[in-house]
Amino acid sequence: MSETRRGRPRRAEIDARVIEVATELLLRRGYGGLSPDEVAERAGIAKTTLYRRWPTKDHLAFAVVARLQDDDEITDTGDIRRDLPAYLEKIAAGLERMRRAGRDPGDTGDTGPGPGSVADLLAAAARQPEVGELVREMYARRNTLARALLERARDRGELRPDLDVEALFDQLAGALYYRVLVTGLPVDRAYAERLTDTALRGAARERN
Amino acid sequence: MSETRRGRPRRAEIDARVIEVATELLLRRGYGGLSPDEVAERAGIAKTTLYRRWPTKDHLAFAVVARLQDDDEITDTGDIRRDLPAYLEKIAAGLERMRRAGRDPGDTGDTGPGPGSVADLLAAAARQPEVGELVREMYARRNTLARALLERARDRGELRPDLDVEALFDQLAGALYYRVLVTGLPVDRAYAERLTDTALRGAARERN
């Protein structure tokens, strides 16, 4: 074992520990309550170590978001009418979790209709072009997997062969974001089912 | 004419002048460059008059957004395949305008893929519950008109009778917001046409 490795945790272990602490803080306190200095202290590492890996609070916050997204598995059972609402429900749950992060639910258990940290995170990505680029790459990777689910359903004949998969996925994910960010209406399993049904059946009276 | 009215502009005139100046500043400089004090000065009114009507910068910013939305007429020609992309194109143009507000387009005329002031405005609405409530009411009023367009198309038989109009509208508007805020992909007339076609035809291979 080399001198520099003796007794020191590996980089992957440090990363995992930092992200775990940051995840806990972000979900409990919201974007405004996340402090990289505090994360470093709680994770037992030097601040310089943390900032070398995640140069700003926003880099750290989106590392948490990426990790939470990776935890949401995309299940393909071969039945798109089952798999699609299941996946949309996961996106909805992730948005709801971030919407509520750091907000006092009050006596009723309700945090109100505002978008909470979902809006803070998007504004953070908008402020720093470099972070924005990371976020768009993260979503691009993630959405490629989600679109593959739709493409496989198309290839086995559940969806029509000339389907615009990109537009369809934008509509499904977009509806969830729109409700959380703009209209403040709830997103849940029932809503995921409504979206799936509306998108699959189509709005026109007659197919043409 | 009463003493207090002599020579003074009416409240509606003052409002219109303030909103005009604020619109020009917001679109030219972006959310970060909007200053209520400067708006009051340019409109030639006392700061106290402005703050009595719009207590914070965010109230003023959303008065601008509401005015811009009202300028986007919803045209009903009786053909939903024509009216829907036309209206979606207006939403897209409004988002693009706010996305580019205050950003230097550089030598290429491109401001890059970030959401710009669209994200700033949503974060502002998230910060102040009272402003968030105003914003949700504004969108609720606006979206009622847009959904009426779909409901009339359903009533005259262009759309299916059991259509979930709310889910359909969320999907269409949501896809535009999702691209501007999250994936950074362009929204324009061609994309509005893709959305309309995908939503009207439906994704499923066979109607069921």
If you had to describe this structure to a student in words, what would you say it looks like?
The structure is a homodimer. The first copy, chain A, is mostly helical and about 210 residues long. Chain A has 2 domains: about 55 residues, Homeodomain-like (Arc Repressor Mutant, subunit A, Orthogonal Bundle); about 130 residues, Tetracycline Repressor, domain 2, CATH 1.10.357. Chain A is about 65% helix and about 0% strand. Chain A is built from 9 helices and no strands. The radius of gyration of chain A is 20 Å and the shape is globular. The relative contact order of chain A is 0.11. The mean pLDDT of chain A is about 90. At the A-B interface, helix 6, helix 7, helix 8 and helix 9 of A face helix 6, helix 7, helix 8 and helix 9 of B.
